[in-house]
Specification:
- The structure holds two protein chains of two kinds.
- Chain A contains nine helices and twelve strands.
- By secondary structure, chain A is an alpha+beta fold.
- Chain A has a domain at about 50-190: Beta Complex (RNA Polymerase Alpha Subunit, Chain A, domain 2).
- In chain A, the strands form four sheets. A four-stranded antiparallel sheet of chain A has the order 1-2-12-9. In chain A, strands 3-8-4-6 form a four-stranded antiparallel sheet, covered by helices on one side.
- In chain A, β10 (about 230-235) and β11 (about 240-245) form a beta hairpin.
- Chain A is extended and about 80 Å long.
- Helix content of chain B is about 35%, strand content about 25%.
- Chain B has helices at about 40-50, 85-105, and strands spanning about 20-25, 30-35, 55-60, 70-75.
- Classes of the chains: A alpha+beta, B alpha+beta.
- At the A-B interface, α1, α8 and α9 of A face α1 and α2 of B.
- Chain A: Keywords: Acetylation, DNA-directed RNA polymerase, Nucleus, Transcription.
Chain lengths: ~325, ~110
């Protein structure tokens, strides 16, 4: 076979804003298929850790067992370990439901209300056997305490009381053991690290300046106000129409329709740049937003690696069958 | 009760090949690849990459049914190339693009 040429692209990335649970970046010089693959992988295939198995010992709360198990599953856990962990279904060190350092993390919860005041059972009551895997809000409180202030004051501060699992009245008790496992969002949404992952095409807006100048100031204002989002404005000095925020444009075409209605079709032309994308990534906190992107690239590369076609794949399968037959 | 296991959506069953190749009987240099347990994520990115290859005359993919967890990628190439070669080249090219992206992010 002749050696095929290489036709890969060299995309560019510019990070605009980065917080632990938020990322905004530009991806340029690539295709929508690549942008969409990254988005899909971030949402459904970047692994995280979530509670998957719950053994309830005592539950005299008002919520039934499965309701509580479901709520526990949805609590985001710090999943920095997830990329290195094993899926419990391919873990050979255990049978998949025990305490195994490679594929699971155990949690215990015990709460009993002894007073007349309602007791909130929260994510802070979950005791993990792995200090690296904690509910994200608890981990944040620990970090805040380490940075200054006491642990209890950080946990008790009104904006960070933990995620409420159930409320108990006097005499009610909840006691359980939970096993958290690695998983992906495709399996169950509780394993998705993404709260929202979106991308938009960067708009390319061209104003026909000559035609625009044929409008009176009042007409310009009317035209600007026809846009549901604030994309255009009037320069107070020159009284010219200026683009203040091209990305506020939602491809609603209201300004184009308005221009037509004013008998000024062609006043503005707006195209979507086919190779520029603006991504917004919001994380649940399980994986940091930036790490979600890095992990998505790794996961996508692993997936690609698995779908390479080898002609001798058939022979490998044959070998396995023959080996099996010989036994 | 008889619901299939959730992981059946993304774990290739034992004895099933991840990728299988079937030559087109009517057109030379045309073939379709069946990729088990993959979806639009891989399908669309491969298709678009194949379109960049001038030796590829046709490239398309389909997800035949939402409950059949597989995709079909059909490729027709010129005599300068072959479907298998174009297919693997497309994978390598997407991988290079991702490697480049990763290097950009880890500065």
């Amino acid at each position: 076979m002749e050696g095929g040429g290489s036709y890969h692209r060299m995309p560019k990335v510019r990070i605009r804003e980065m917080k632990d649970d938020y990322l905004k970046f530009e991806l340029r010089e690539t295709d929508a298929s690549m942008a969409n693959a990254l988005r899909r992988v971030m949402l459904a295939e970047v692994p995280t850790i979530a509670i998957d198995l719950v053994e309830i010992e005592i539950n005299s709360s008002v919520l039934n067992d499965e309701f509580i198990a479901h709520r526990l599953g949805l609590i985001p856990l710090v999943s920095d370990r997830a990329m290195e962990m094993r899926f419990s279904r391919d873990c050979d060190a255990c049978d998949g439901d025990g305490q195994c350092q490679f594929c699971s993390v155990e949690f215990h919860l015990w709460a009993r209300c002894e007073s007349d005041q309602t007791l909130d059972v929260t994510s802070a009551d979950l005791k993990s056997n792995d200090p690296l895997v904690q509910p994200v809000d608890v981990a944040r409180a620990i970090d805040a305490a380490a940075a200054g202030g006491t642990l209890s004051s950080a946990v008790d501060s009104s904006d960070n009381r933990g995620i409420i699992i159930v409320k108990l009245r006097r005499g009610q008790e909840l006691r359980l053991r939970a096993i958290a496992r690695k998983g992906i969002g495709k399996d169950h949404a509780k394993w998705s690290p993404g709260a929202t992952v979106t991308f938009m095409y960067e708009p390319d807006i061209h104003i026909n300046e000559e035609m625009m100048e044929s409008l009176t100031l009042d007409e310009k204002r009317q035209w600007i106000d026809s846009s549901p989002t604030k994309v255009f404005d009037i320069d107070p000095n020159t009284q010219q129409v200026v683009i203040v925020d091209p990305e506020a444009y939602t491809y609603d075409e209201e300004v184009i329709k308005k221009a037509e209605a004013m008998g000024k079709s062609g006043l503005v032309e707006i195209y979507a740049k086919e190779d520029s994308f603006i991504f917004t990534v919001e994380s649940t906190g399980a994986v940091k937003a930036y790490q979600m992107l890095v992990n998505a690239i790794d996961v996508l590369r692993q997936k690609l690696d698995a779908v390479r076609y080898t002609e001798d794949a058939d022979f490998h399968l044959l070998d396995e069958h023959m080996g099996g037959a010989a036994l | 009760m008889n619901a299939p296991d959730r992981y059946e959506r993304f774990v290739v069953p034992e004895g099933v090949k991840k990728v299988s190749y079937e030559r087109d009987t009517k057109i030379i240099n045309a073939a379709s690849f069946t990729i088990e347990r993959e979806d639009h994520t891989i399908g669309n990115v491969l298709r678009m990459q194949l379109h960049r290859d001038p030796n590829v005359l046709f490239a398309g993919y389909k997800l035949p049914h939402p409950l059949q967890y597989k995709i079909l990628v059909r490729i027709h190439t010129t005599s300068q190339s072959s479907p298998a070669q174009a297919y693997n080249q497309a994978i390598n090219d997407v991988d290079k693009e991702l490697e480049h992206l990763k290097n950009l992010l880890e500065v």
